[in-house]
């Protein structure tokens, strides 16, 4: 009888999904957990986020930059695109920072992003922007992958990731590392070091900092594929978006990035908010990062001339040869 009821509930859920017109089945566990994280976080922060000690606020800000760099400087620019090389201490630091960001495993992150670049905004793209802003931002995490995503994902060369002993170790212990560096240790540090109340510390680390980084990174998939201008390749959806670049430590110059994905800067020109590039430059200065790859001015000008545009999103003509972000 119990088994029959479970099967019947499953059928009702599938019927509900079809009636809602979903292209793929929902991942109900993910949907529930993501919803609870946001609703629960809002309630928790309403009661416990304030008053807050200045050290707790500063620590949350530092963790925002550190975990963001783990994603953009580590998972994205180093391991997905191989845009530079890192020595062992930098790799370990990046893995700690990536674990603290609380995202999917590094192997999943790299595979999904390589598929995204190869089949951008098609049915094989995990967060296909043609399916709407909500889907490309967070909805794709609540649904099972499109069969094309799975099919094309199996064709992606992941040998460099699978053959790396350090990354295999990180994959094996990813869950405890994620729990420790994303939630437990950051929440306990303010309590231990400057006697912050534990509910306030949890509010700033497990909800405010974590969810801010989470959504900042997701804007690259959504907002940067919907709003902005396209000076480097007018034929694709990825666009230059200053807001996204600011909150994601420099990942919002997305039209450039899709034109030159192997460029470690992820932008033609740096600005104050391209923190990811500045940090890589710092580690290059101290010898921890080497072989930084970037597109030459001649290559950029040639690409702009072939497939770019000289118009900004406001419609004003600009001289791309001296464009400064």
Automatic annotation (TrEMBL):
Chief subcellular location: membrane
GO biological process, one term: unsaturated fatty acid biosynthetic process
Bilayer topology term: Multi-pass membrane protein
Domain Fatty acid desaturase as annotated: residue spans: 54-261
Domain of life: Eukaryota
Locations listed in the record: Membrane
GO cellular component: endoplasmic reticulum membrane
Parts forming coiled coils: none
Keywords: Fatty acid biosynthesis, Fatty acid metabolism, Iron, Lipid biosynthesis, Lipid metabolism, Membrane, Oxidoreductase, Transmembrane, Transmembrane helix
Cofactor(s) it depends on: Fe(2+)
Gene Ontology molecular functions: iron ion binding; stearoyl-CoA 9-desaturase activity
Entry similarity comment: Belongs to the fatty acid desaturase type 1 family.
Domain description: The histidine box domains are involved in binding the catalytic metal ions.
Name of the protein described by the UniProt record: Fatty acid desaturase domain-containing protein
